[in-house]
Design brief:
Layout lengths: L2 E4 L3 H9 L5 E5 L9 H15 L3 E4 L5 H12 L3 E5 L16 E4 L3 H10 L1 E6 L4 H15 L8 E4 L1 H18 L5 H4 L3 E4 L2 H9 L1
Parallel strand pairs: 1-5, 2-3, 2-6, 3-4, 4-5, 6-7, 7-8
Helix pairs in contact: 1-4, 2-3, 2-8
Length: about 200
């Protein structure tokens, strides 16, 4: 049975995560992936392996990659946390049975900050606009020194390489980022959970 923790403020949401007894890793990605997909299976394996090493898992509490990570955490017997927003439809909510804790917050902006604030690593699988919003928010917080920088791991070269290559070229052309390499020094792109696990545990 999951523990329902409903908070409407930034401070209370952070306090809930701070009380967790395990180090945390946040997993992001598309809600559209099915259990038959490579990314779903990889996210499950990553969360299970991290759980067996004493990490808790945080997600947005939805289906797809989020559900995979929470299910992997439950299989490992570790904290499986979903940070949800009531305004999202039922189609974007996972089964409560794979969550040990449910934190409900009022909006997506608050959820993004809470999910990133206390995690020791942030793992991004392929996703759509929500996932892009989340990774850019994280990098913006890091660049402004508004959050402690931690490893950001993007899984699947064929998904992420083009985005970062374009950003590097475009920002250099328009001189909108003074030192691109400095701002993305915490980002690693890899292809599977084995690589991500090595980065996090090392």
């Amino acid at each position: 049975m999951s523990q329902q923790l409903c908070f409407s403020t930034y401070r209370d949401g952070l306090r809930a995560l701070r009380k967790m007894k395990t180090p945390l890793v946040t997993v992001y990605g598309s809600h559209r992936f099915t259990p038959q997909s490579t990314s779903y299976r990889d996210a499950y394996a990553l969360a299970e392996a991290l759980g067996k090493r004493g990490y808790g898992i945080v997600t947005g509490g939805g289906p797809g990659v989020m559900s995979a990570a929470n299910a992997g955490a439950m299989a490992a017997g570790t904290s499986s946390i979903g940070v949800r927003v009531p305004a999202l439809s039922d189609l974007e909510t996972s089964d409560d049975g794979i969550l040990t804790h449910i934190i409900t917050v009022r909006d997506l902006a608050l959820r993004r900050i809470i999910m990133a604030q206390y995690s020791q690593a942030l793992v991004f699988y392929p996703g759509a606009f929500g996932t892009m919003d989340e990774i850019f928010e994280v990098l913006a917080l890091f660049s402004a020194d508004l959050a402690s920088a931690v490893p950001v791991i993007c899984i699947k070269h064929d998904y992420w390489d083009g985005l970062f290559d374009w950003m590097r070229t475009a920002t250099a052309h328009y001189n909108t980022v003074a030192d691109w390499d400095y701002y993305i020094r915490h980002v690693t792109i890899c292809d599977n959970h084995h690589d991500a696990l090595r980065i996090i545990t090392n």
